[in-house]
Amino acid sequence: MKKERRCRRQFDDQFRLSVLKDYYESGCSYSEIARKYDINSGNIIHWERKYMNKCVPLSSDIHELEQQVIMAKKTRKTNAAVCPQPLSEEERLKAENARLRKALAYSELRNEALHEVLKIGKEQYGIDLLKKAGAKQ
């Protein structure tokens, strides 16, 4: 099976700028705009960097929109990180229960491994490292 090879498409500056303008005005993600125009999202990112480095003025309105998009993305990230959804009492208890069950399973496994080490030490070296259970004086 041969893969169909896509031919490389050339985009003119007018098209690139219109895509960037749509990206800034709509506030959509790169992938949403890429699907809309049937292009790769990497192209949009590349064009954005290219025109920023060349300092091509897209217009002051678009520049303001760009700043608003950047601020909106930053606030969306910080709000998600700072304000997680509050859990109900039941959900919180279930999460704590699951965490404690995992901790117990780990402790039991660790205890079993340590007993195996003591058993191997006694067999190989003849030394009993386990404490004797008895009355303390």
Keywords, please?
single chain; 0% strand; 137 residues; 2 domains; 5 helices; mainly alpha
Quick structural gist:
The protein has 137 residues and is an all-alpha fold.
Number of helices: 5
Q: Kindly estimate the percentage of residues that lie in beta strands according to DSSP.
A: under 5%
Helical residue percent band: 55-70%
Low-confidence stretches: none
Q: Please give the radius of gyration in angstroms.
A: 31 Å
Straight-line N-to-C gap: 83 Å
Describe the biggest sheet? Answer: none
Oligomer: single chain
Shape: elongated
Query: SSE order, as H and E?
Result: HHHHH
SS class: mainly alpha
Mean pLDDT over the full residue set:
78
DSSP summary, beta strand count: 0
| Count of domains | 2
List the helices and strands and how they pair.
Blueprint: H1 13-26, H2 30-37, H3 41-53, H4 60-82, H5 89-125
Walkthrough of the structure:
The longest helix has 37 residues. It is built from five helices and no strands. The mean pLDDT is 78. 69% of the residues lie in helices and 0% in strands. It folds into two domains: 70 residues; 44 residues, no CATH class. It is elongated, with a radius of gyration of 31 Å. It is mainly α and 137 residues long.
